[in-house]
């Protein structure tokens, strides 16, 4: 997890926004919906990444307390 995952998630979200905008311009509801789905997927992945980072931080805190670091 980390910066590369954040960048990938942001890129996927931006791609979804682009699809949604293109669908809006062309009046293509399927493309708009696909874009919204891409955005939702990216946001979900970002939440998982954030949760994993938080858990890793807590594990590191406990490990440091146990080892005296």
Q: Topology, pairings included?
A:
Elements: H1 3-26, H2 29-67
Helix pairs in contact: 1-2
Which key phrases capture this entry?
2 helices, single chain, rod-shaped, mainly alpha
Write a structural description.
With about 70 residues, the protein is an all-alpha fold. It is about 90% helix and about 0% strand. The protein is built from two helices and no strands. It has helices at about 5-25, 30-65. Helix 1 (about 5-25) packs antiparallel against helix 2 (about 30-65). The model has no long low-confidence stretch (mean pLDDT about 90).
User: What fraction of residues sit in β-strands?
Assistant: under 5%
Main beta-sheet annotation: none
Helix content: over 70%
Number of helices: 2
**Overall radius of gyration:** 18 Å
The end-to-end distance, rounded to whole angstroms, is 23 Å
Uncertain segments: none
Order of helices and strands, N to C?
HH
Structural class comes to mainly alpha
- Counting DSSP E segments of at least 2 residues, the number of strands comes to 0
Summarize the structure.
The protein is mainly α and 69 residues long. 91% of the residues lie in helices and 0% in strands. The mean pLDDT is 92.
């Amino acid at each position: 997890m980390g910066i590369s995952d954040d960048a990938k998630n942001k890129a996927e979200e931006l791609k979804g926004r682009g699809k949604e905008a293109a669908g809006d311009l062309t009046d293509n509801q399927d493309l708009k919906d696909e874009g919204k789905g891409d955005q939702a997927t990216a946001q979900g992945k970002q939440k998982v990444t954030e949760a994993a980072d938080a858990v890793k931080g807590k594990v590191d805190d406990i490990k440091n307390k146990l080892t005296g670091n």
